[in-house]
Specification:
Strand content: 5-15%
Structural class: mainly alpha
Strand order of the largest sheet: 3-4-5
Number of helices: 8
Radius of gyration: 22 Å
Oligomer: single chain
Distance between the termini: 57 Å
Order of helices and strands: HEEHHHHHEHEEH
Low-confidence stretches: none
Largest sheet: 3 strands, antiparallel
Mean pLDDT: 81
Number of strands: 5
Shape: globular
Helix content: 40-55%
């Protein structure tokens, strides 16, 4: 239960809230209320229910560790075979394209608000689009998450302003984790990345 893992007597400095993958902040007066509102939000928006209580707890503890209690786990006495066996290191799975695109688009929105984005002209945008259309690394986000796709569309509109997605591709770059409809318009530095094709317009060449 939430109350057994979070010190309910300590009020979080940022309040009781949970941020969904689509950027929506769900707030309440207590952690239990936040959990119930997350469950209700996901049900209304046809989002997979997941484990709202576990996710709210994990995010709260990551954001403000001082409010969380550490569960006491008695140490186990390893067997002889266990002492001899080397520990296996398992790398965590890489973030999904959806997570990377949303994070990148939010960064671009911040740059737009600061007035630090520079855009290319329409001819350059078309040139880049032709290259990306033949690239094996362009990948579409899954359409099962309606709220996530709405969030992406909204961020695109904020960053592009009067510019529009006038032609494909409308996917993301699976190597760089960038949103192509926005990236095609931005005047950005090239990058060194061996996974990018030789003809990629974002690839740094000698």
């Amino acid at each position: 239960m939430i109350s057994s893992k979070i010190n309910v007597n300590v009020r979080p400095s940022q309040g009781h809230f949970f941020e969904e993958a689509d950027g929506t902040q769900i707030r309440g007066n207590t952690w239990i209320e936040v959990v119930k509102r997350v469950q209700s939000y996901r049900s209304r928006n046809h989002i997979a229910p997941g484990n709202a209580e576990t996710e709210v707890l994990a995010q709260a503890c990551q954001r403000e560790p001082q409010i969380c209690k550490r569960a006491h786990v008695p140490p186990e006495t390893p067997s002889k075979s266990a002492r001899r066996a080397p520990r296996q290191h398992i790398d965590p799975p890489p973030p999904s394209l959806k997570t990377r695109l949303l994070g990148w688009l939010r960064d671009m929105r911040k740059f737009k608000e600061k007035g630090s984005l520079v855009y290319v002209d329409l001819a350059e945008r078309h040139r880049r689009a032709k290259i990306c259309l033949g690239c094996p690394h362009r990948k579409a986000m899954k359409k099962t998450c309606g709220a996530c796709n709405k969030a992406v569309d909204g961020l695109r509109e904020e960053v592009l302003g009067e510019r529009r997605e006038i032609s494909p591709p409308k996917e993301g770059c699976n190597v760089l984790g960038t949103d192509l409809p926005v990236m095609l318009w931005l005047d950005e530095l090239t990058v060194e990345n061996a996974n990018l094709p030789a003809n990629c317009w974002r690839k740094k060449t000698l």
